[in-house]
Amino acid sequence: MSAALPAAPLEVDRAQIATALHWDHERLDGLERAAFDAWAEGDLAEARAAFGRFAGGLRRHIGLEETLVFPELDRRVGAGASRELRTASLRSEHRQILALVAAIELAVRSDAVPIRLLRRHLRELLTAHSRKEDQVLYPLVDSLLRPDERGIILRRIELLPEQ
Ligand SMILES: [Fe+2]
Ligand SMILES: [Fe+2]
Q1: Domain architecture of the chain: domains with CATH
Q2: pTM of the full predicted structure?
């Protein structure tokens, strides 16, 4: 599965990190839905494959936030930032989300694990997490970066492979 961002070429002056990463949230939601739709239909092979695409895409997304986006915010707002603007809690949510994704990867291989419960927990975590990023963090990063700085980050986002 391609990890490409929207097909239109980036216009650096108007390019927004918020737009690109919100687009990726929606792409990942679609992959996750596809996996569980296949699982509900009893197509376990497709469910495993689709969940693998979702998990790889999510690891990539989290990796680029932690290596490219969060450090920019931390550098600019510093240690005196309000709790809402600190990235530590988002990083800790990432750890919980990745642990759940790993548990579901195991669960789709066996019937012994309560996959519905794991999925519900993952959806709750991911929805609240993505909303904070989409509504607060990404727009703030865009507002703090010059267009050329945003352009550099967006190009690095495009180049980062799935994990
Ligand atoms: Fe995140
Ligand atoms: Fe995100």
Answers
A1: 17-159 (1.20.120.520)
A2: 0.84
